[in-house]
Amino acid sequence: MRPSKPTLASRIAQLNDYRKELRQWLDEPAPGPWDRARLRVLERMVQLLVECAADAGDLWLEERGRPLGESATGVFQNLHREGVMDAEMLARFQRYVSTRNRIVHDYDLITPQRVRQDAEGLAQDVPLLVQALLTA
After folding, report:
1. Is 88 helix (H, G, I), strand (E, B) or coil?
2. CA distances (Å), origin 113, targets 4, 7, 46, 110
3. pLDDT value for 110
4. Which CATH architecture has domain 8-135?
5. What value does the CA radius of gyration of the chain take, rounded to a whole number of Å?
6. End-to-end distance of the chain based on CA atoms, in angstroms?
7. Residues 95, 76, 48, 123: is their CA dihedral positive or negative?
8. Tens digit of each residue's pLDDT (9 = 90 or more) over 18-35
9. Model-level pTM greater than 0.70?
10. Domain boundaries in the chain?
């Protein structure tokens, strides 16, 4: 049996859950050897949030008969074209996609500061994206 296709509502709920989990990891102090483990958790959370946000964006585009993205960056560019994201939000999500790609494909060294900065950014931007998807 094939799993059912996700809906925009289910992806938004998942995105909100991931964001809450990310916020917990960002707020939790992790002294000593746990710092490295938390970095790996934050990397994974960045990956999950970017992928889930792109999926939600594609579902929004599909529901409206608009072109889907060829990639995560393409999804966010299409959302920008449709007025869901302004140019500043688009630039931030393009950076998040770049960070996700560097994490997943191990392109080059990514600093803990970059991971933390983008995790913090996603924690702030995901609710803005969710609101935009629900009201656009």
Report:
1. helix
2. 38, 34, 13, 8
3. 87
4. Up-down Bundle (1.20)
5. 15
6. 34
7. positive
8. 999 999 888 877 666 667
9. yes
10. 8-135
